[in-house]
Amino acid sequence: MTAVTARTEQAAATGDGYTVVKAKHPGRWLSAVVIIVIAGLLLRSVITNPNFGWDVVGLYLRDVSIGRGILVTLGLTAISMAIGIVLGVVFAVMRLSANPIVRGAAFAYVNFFRGTPVLVQLLFWFNLAALYPVITLGIPGVQLDANQLITPMTAAILGLGLNQGAYMSEIVRAGILSVDHGQTEAAEALGITRLQTMRRVVLPQAMRVIIPPTGNETIGMLKTTALVSVISVPELLYSAQIIYARTFETVPLLIVASLWYLLITSILTVGQYYLERRFARGNQRNLPPTPLQQLKRFFATHDALSLKGGKK
Fold this sequence. Notes:
Blueprint: H1 2-14, H2 26-48, H3 54-60, H4 64-95, H5 100-115, H6 118-126, E1 134-135, E2 144-145, H7 146-149, H8 152-178, H9 181-189, H10 194-224, H11 236-247, H12 250-279, H13 291-309
Antiparallel strand pairs: 1-2
Subcellular location: Cell membrane
GO molecular function: transmembrane transporter activity
Protein name: Amino acid ABC transporter membrane protein, PAAT family
């Protein structure tokens, strides 16, 4: 009786008709403590270990050559993704064509560029002059010197862009197939051409499926650009390699490159989140809250609980 009376008095004091008993999760607290302890030990080891050379990291973090490498990395990412998206849309439409030759050609392109490593493709384009010293393009009077035409930057753009186009074609094709076929049939009944249907009806609805993996591919492309260092393109990693080849500070310069990669990918991740949220407006009635909204809701909830508990 005493316990029941106490719970009744507590409910009356809080103004509720029921008693709220907070659930206890000792396993959660234990796992959190273990993770915090391990993270603290790792952080302490990293900070106190002089072999990391944090003074050197701070010295070269804003180096001019590192900054130029970042610009080259961002440029390569943007150009390669632009090429990949355009090719992805074209070859995705070709894969869905009723013409077996067109469909087969698109399948061969996708299969070749997805089936060979991107590093091999980069080296292949870089050494294209060994196969075709003179590029004529089948046009009489056109004779282009491959050694001058295929520079390291050109080889990097061709290798990354064409490889990305193969992956983007599968992403776009999946997005197109996710749109109900009745949309296409309705457009055909209204007399809209196939191209207009694809551009105005299908692709806008397919963007909800296309955008999330495209954001992941963009982040992946940013990191894949590090491979072009093997053909001497002065991107971020190659700029760091040039410096530590001169100073022999290998680990600190690799940390510098890693920190910049982490910063850029974090920014791209935030942009991807808001872009996905925008394209989800027509598909979800309640959009997921943004990090700022989640933070406001957290403090608002705890402020309300504290005021409620403080009532007498």
